[in-house]
Amino acid sequence: MNRLRKKQNSEEDKIIIAQNKKALRDFFILDTYEAGIALEGCEVKSIRDRKVNLKDSYARIKNNQLFLYNMHISPYGNSRVQDINPTRTRKLLMHKKEIDRIAGKLTDRSLTLVPLKIYFKNNKVKVELALAKGKIKRDKRLDIQKKEHEIEIKRALKKY
Fold first, then answer.
1. For the residues 60-88, what does the mean pLDDT come to?
2. Are strands 124-134 and 27-37 parallel, antiparallel or unpaired?
3. Which of 20, 21, 78, 154 could covalently link to 54 via disulfide, CB atoms 3.0 to 4.6 Å apart?
4. Is 72 exposed, middle or buried (0-12, 13-18, 19+ CB in 10 A)?
5. Going by DSSP bridges, is the β-strand pair 65-69/27-37 parallel, antiparallel, or unpaired?
6. Residues 8-135, CATH architecture
7. Would strands 14-19 and 111-121 be described as parallel, antiparallel, or unpaired?
8. CA distances from 78 to 11, 75, 84, 142 (A)
9. What would you report as the CA-atom Rg of the chain, rounded to the nearest whole angstrom?
């Protein structure tokens, strides 16, 4: 019984470091996946200091391996090594079966892999990837209209 409680608590112990709000605005999210990430040197310390930017990052499958491009991790200030490129390509860690499943879904040209969040789970850095389809301007406008209507409804309900 104690084991079950510990397991439930560990799933809830996600410390979100950064979110990609632009991805939520620009894409329809079809499916999400969790992946580990291979980091070098003091990158983990920079991530703990929340010096991460996911804004223009994306993931690709190359030689049956998953890589994350353009994720910016600022160099750690107290580090002796300053040679690490902040936007270097980083390898994502997933099981081969999951990568093959994602590759099968990516055969459709309009889909892409976009990181949504980076967080700590059980003291390990994890990335939440999304299989996403791009929105058209019309779709973005409809989303904005829906949000405005919801805000108006909340205001009207507050008055009464």
1. 86
2. antiparallel
3. 20
4. middle
5. unpaired
6. Beta Barrel (2.40)
7. antiparallel
8. 32, 9, 13, 47
9. 19
